[in-house]
Amino acid sequence: MTEINTKKKGTYEFFFFQEKNNFVGVCLTLDIVEEGKNLRQVIHNLMEAVKGHIITVIKNNLSDKLLNRPAHKYYWG
């Protein structure tokens, strides 16, 4: 992650993969992970979680550091 995200702009990276019988979705930029049996539902749930996180940071004028929390190196390959 090279760009610093702020409340006014940002870029978010996502990674989806299958692990045994489940699908996993990771927002690499915010360290948010969703898991489930259906890829479509995992994508939807992850987008909702990320959206909720960003809205909370903006509404409560929280630190921009909360918009730049890289996921564990395990997910970066």
User: What is the number of beta strands?
Assistant: 3
Main beta sheet: 3 strands, antiparallel
Q: Hey, roughly how much beta strand do the residues contain?
A: 15-25%
- Please compute the radius of gyration using only Cα atoms: 13 Å
Identify the quaternary structure here: single chain
Number of helices: 1
Note the overall shape: globular
Could you tell me the mean pLDDT? 95
Give the structural class. alpha+beta
Distance between the termini: 14 Å
Spell out the helices and strands N to C: EEEH
Helix percent band = 25-40%
Strand order of the largest sheet: 1-2-3
Low-confidence stretches: none
Question: Please, could you describe this protein's structure?
Answer:
By secondary structure, the chain is α+β, with helices and mostly antiparallel strands. 27% of the residues lie in helices and 22% in strands. It contains one helix and three strands. It has a three-stranded antiparallel β-sheet, covered by helices on one side. A hairpin with a 4-residue loop joins strand 2 (22-27) and strand 3. The radius of gyration is 13 Å and the shape is globular. The model has no long low-confidence stretch (mean pLDDT 95).
